[in-house]
Design a protein that fits this description.
homodimer, Thermophilic metalloprotease-like, 8-stranded antiparallel beta sheet, 4-stranded parallel beta sheet, 12 helices, 20 strands, 34% helix, globular
Chain lengths: 425, 425
């Protein structure tokens, strides 16, 4: 089953090539002589081959493609001696060190071939493997990603199983094709001037984030059906959106697509009730119809239509898993919102609506955040946790106001849409 | 196109599972807690998943599967800046060091998805990439493989394109199935007692190699149509066949299948003419109808029906590429010979007939060979070269005699078949 070896609409190849170019250029911004790592699943081999061509054309020194196979991950958890499940060879850490120290470009291509392949397995065993993989890559996350020492970008490619979750009435091949078409549209590669559109879109996100940062927001106030939530921000909070930069000034786009302006809240000042406006996954289980009440920063009560047990377990992961680590603003001008689809993949769904996250906060959204100690983080209400899950909380019935440090109240989003200067493209 | 997801004959799954067990047990002889690396192409993912299960069931600590994609290798050579083609990231060497230092088990699963994917490319660029990969893995080859510090095993799995080379009149799927059936038969997994058969086969190869080593052979003499070739052996020559052992005494089987007893000749004492009895590949080009004349150890003349230019270029690779580096004895009891097929894959074809190799010699086939310096090698006529190509030279019309140091003459192979005590199973 290989999409790219099938007879496809003529425009398809063009859009696929553009998508690869967008990732290599705007996403990773590969520099001549740069080492590049691509992590993905074997299923995506045809798209990856196209992408690797673009990476070499931009002057990559070496493109290392790390192909994972979900069947192998599953087999390990089922058949390995339990005592070895947390182990990873030392050369994994060596690799991550080299990626960081050489300032490599790192691409993750999401899109699960088998979305549920670990769901029926012992969650403890699954977690042990995940923790082991995290330990091996810790230097990469803390130094490479958090301090932006590497170029990094996360994108998605369609698979039949993922596509059929979104289009359950379609056959495998039709669903996959339809999902690719959505990806192309949302990522703007259905336009000849796609690269210019991304530059303009990026400028818009930068302008919005900069304007939000300079407003002096003390509290965000979300209001809508089932929602009356206040989220406090520390005076050090800054908003980010669009491309990021390495310490040496190289731009890269951490997510394609991206539609959000996000910051780190003071978790202690979260109060009120909030209704999730879209389903989301928690450790592989879909949670629907979530309602949460926060009191002095922690969840005091919640209910779900579906997935309540999984959500409960999640909130008990650690001290920080029932506290906010992120608040992000997304308007209804988002092409993901406009698609009317629920992608059941957070890279897409979090960019369809305003969202909050339960779990770890991004220190880069506090002034001088990269150098903050854990203790200083605690003093600022910057949440620390080993988990992070986004929950979408806006729709065309939700308004978002900012209460400023000077006492003023400014409307940011009305009926889901950016207003005032924030709406100007 | 995934063989294992198709409707297959009932026995097929059984044989495939046995083949995986044979590789994990007899081939790699994986020890509890051992690191395992599997190198292969993405095409083989279904077979690899089965194999990984057997590796974990034997107690492997971690199985690292390194999936290569021929499309990516090709793209690199076509699109990379030429100055980077010889580069490999440092973490490749780190990995090979860890594999050697930890005494890992290493499996190579051959079987090209696209046998000709590099044939039309600039041979200089292809060679630069190969040399770079070799440099990164040099410690692994010189310490791990040559000194048997790692367990290692080379096997093959079917692909449609490879299978259609052997069965050109069959469709892709039928050819692939037919090739798998040949692999199963040749590897004895079509018998319930396959593991015992391999033990017995291995004992036979050990006995033959040991008897050959203790004969005191001064010269091997091959005679047949177009062939009257004498190959001298040094007094330090020993024959090897079947399983090898690590310095700590762990057995492993370097090749599955294996039918040969081989040694390192004194290249200087090669004289006469020899006719290749099977076609073979030189840098991706098939050579047919080769006739060579050796004079004082070097090729003095040759002719081919096909592939003459490629063979000529090969013999000019370096000083050692026109001299012998191996001589191996295989009888017509080999199931590969009995299949009547030419596999166009050296792992199989070299085990169908006696063969010589032009190029580098294996030092392990000389007494205390691992500790010999290059200078000592030269004194013993142990050939040094960066290349090695096997050429099959026996058939049912070829006899092989040994002239011993004591002047006696012993017939080893008559009309292609082992004779006397060598034929006893």
């Amino acid at each position: 089953m290989d999409l790219l070896n099938r007879e496809l609409p003529a425009y398809f190849t063009t859009y696929m090539r553009r998508y690869a170019q967008l990732i290599a250029s705007h996403g990773l911004n590969v520099r001549p002589g740069q080492l590049v790592q691509v992590s993905t699943e074997v299923y995506h081999r045809s798209f990856i081959a196209l992408l690797v061509e673009e990476l070499y054309l931009r002057g990559a020194k070496y493109v290392h493609v790390d192909f994972a196979d979900p069947a192998i991950s599953r087999t390990r958890i089922l058949r390995s001696n339990a005592e070895y499940l947390g182990d990873t060879p030392a050369f994994f850490s060596d690799k991550y060190h080299e990626l960081v120290e050489s300032g490599a470009a790192n691409l993750k291509v999401l899109g699960p071939e088998k979305p549920d392949h670990l769901v029926d397995l012992d969650p403890h065993a699954v977690n042990t493997v995940r923790k082991g993989a995290y330990r091996a890559a810790k230097h990469f996350y803390t130094e490479g990603i958090e301090k932006s020492k590497v170029h990094w970008c996360v994108v998605a490619a369609a698979t039949p199983a993922w596509a059929q979750r979104i289009f359950p009435t379609l056959g495998e091949q039709d669903a996959e094709l339809r999902l690719w078409e959505q990806i192309f549209k949302i990522c703007r590669v259905d336009h000849d001037d796609f690269m210019a559109r991304w530059e303009a879109h990026n400028d818009l996100l930068h302008r919005r984030a900069s304007a939000l940062s300079s407003l002096g927001i003390e509290e965000l106030h979300f209001q809508g059906p089932g929602t009356d939530l206040r989220v406090g921000l520390s005076s050090k909070a800054i908003f980010k959106g669009g491309s990021d930069s390495t310490p040496t000034g190289d731009r890269f786009e951490p997510n394609i697509p991206t539609e959000e302006c996000f910051t780190t809240p003071d978790w202690r000042r979260t109060n009120g009730t909030v209704a999730a406006t879209r389903p989301f996954y928690v450790n592989g289980t879909l949670v629907k119809g979530l309602l949460i009440t926060f009191k002095n920063g922690e969840i005091s009560h919640f209910s779900c239509d579906e997935g309540e047990a999984a959500f409960k377990t999640y909130t008990e992961s650690d001290e920080g898993s029932k506290r906010l680590g992120e608040v992000a603003l997304v308007g209804t001008d988002s092409p993901i919102f406009m698609s009317g689809l629920v992608f059941q993949e957070i890279l897409y769904d979090e960019n369809a609506a305003c969202h909050i996250a339960l779990g770890s906060a991004y220190r880069g959204c506090l002034k001088n955040g990269a150098s903050l100690s854990d203790e200083e983080c605690r003093e600022l209400g910057c949440n620390i946790s080993s988990v992070h899950t986004d929950i979408m909380i806006s729709s065309e019935e939700v308004d978002v106001d900012a209460r400023l440090l000077n006492g003023e109240r400014v409307r940011l989003i009305e009926r889901g849409a950016w207003v005032g200067s924030f709406s100007v493209k």
